[in-house]
Amino acid sequence: MLIRDEEVAVKAAQAGAAVVAAMYGASLTRFPKSAGDFATAADIEAENAILDVVRTARPDDAVMGEESGRTGPGDAERTWLVDPLCGTLNYAARSMLVAVNVALRTGSDIMVAASADPFSEEVFWTDGDHAYLRHDGVDERLAPSPDSRLVDVNLDPPFPNGPGFRAVRLLADTGFVEQFRPRVVSTTLAVAWVAAGRRAAYVTDGHLQDSVHFASGIALCQAAGCVVTGLHGQPPHTGVGGLVVAADGETHAALLELIANQIPFDR
Prior knowledge:
eight-stranded mixed β-sheet, five-stranded mixed β-sheet, 7 helices, 15 strands
């Protein structure tokens, strides 16, 4: 029987996560990328494991991997977006806050996605209609909640809306600390946590269209019923870009007001 796309995503993310967990704590070769950024041998091996699953199940699809770039048919309508280790700096410092992300884009839409936590062995996944958490082979529907009041703010570059907007300034805004408690995890696992009710919201700058880092988390949050927009409340990947993901409308509105204090709406 043909395996469904969402199961390919889950299986691929699990394969990558198994490599990441197995190589954790080892002395790993580093491969320099852009300034201050690098991949490790674990990134490479995890991506290879993911690609093996995808290419076996969907040999006619293209793949965009963070480490290997685009492979497969140049005219393919379906492209798998692969981030084998989101949080490489964390991982290299022996922190377990990382994610393995796999998403399928058909045309301009993300159809299915999975984000795996290699150390909890949890997989957050969506079939495009609903979002689930799989653990020990059991699936549970994700339910966003603002109750924690925890908001993750991404402080990693690039900052295309700077100097007008810098996410770091939210942390010093009295309006922010009166309503929320900041967190800085530095992995898109935190985006999946919004869908799961473990975070009230997530805020980042950046142009995230087709981002191998963010595609899975955004799809999870949309399927779970979160409010997902850009920095001005516009549809994702339009206007000034950025990302505001919130568990509910009230949290989202409060964050947009705080952001508007920084970034002018006439940009």
